[in-house]
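Deliverable D4.2, example record:
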Amino acid sequence: AGRTTLQAPKRSQPLALVPMVTKTSTRAYSSELANALVEAGGQVGTGLATIGLAGAGVGIGTVFGSLITGVARNPSLRGQLFNYAILGFAFAEATGLFALMVAFMIRFT
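Output generated by the structure prediction step:
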């Protein structure tokens, strides 16, 4: 019913590996209902963590929309505003990537 693993010998035993039977379950819960609830909680958590990706999209749109507005108001500041826009894009994209990383960590651990 279980998988055989090897255990280091105790000092009183000869120098040989002693087989030991362990459980194959990866969860510490005894009932099927508890396992189902843990799995459902992970699915919900993954879905909630992906909401951060929508926030990153909104942030990137806001950054470049503001860039267009700023250049339309004062075209001579185009280069400086573009540098600020790239910095804002990087911060918004990093936030989205962190949200994606958390979602994957919730899903696959």
